[in-house]
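Recap from last week: sequence in, structure out.
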Amino acid sequence: MSVKSVGAATFDRSDSDITLSQQRRDETTWLAMLHNWWWEIGAAFVSAVCMGLILVILALADGIALDAWKLPIQPNSLISVFTTIGKSSLMVPLAGCLSQLAWQHFASEPRSLDHIRVFDDASRGPWGAMELLVVIGKRGYLARLLAIATVLALGIEPFAQQILEFGNRDVQHAVKSVEIAAATTYQSRAFRNDELSVPRRHTGQ
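Predicted structure tokens:
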């Protein structure tokens, strides 16, 4: 128990009250974070769902023939769609975190004002992310990690197209005899022998 004396009045505050007050502050902090970052959290959730759906498609398509696929959309098309949605959703929290890290970058020590532009460009795409890796150097390991993730995101879609492979394989048929149709003669309607006529050569006297 803690006792505080102010003038002639004395206030007693138990440890349980302090703990309850701390819990309320923590709850308020979490609610404020969810309110401010709901868009980024939702985008990260959508990206995780898309990655999970890709794993489900790969599990369903593994070891089966392409003709046995029952859905009207081919597995490659589904993977391409979910990869595009997942990548676009993943870039939303990456951009938001890079923009927020710009203020932390300036809070530690005085920096050049041009670093604001560098962080802003890094949140917009891979080219700005590569510039951030060059400018800030070894400082800001979290910002460098997010910048590397932004650059590596360029290879998500090309590599996703190489996940599925439909190769040829030899299958032994139970029937031993095989018949193959073959054409021995060909007759065209545009060219008939009975319609051919050789013109006669006339000689004059």
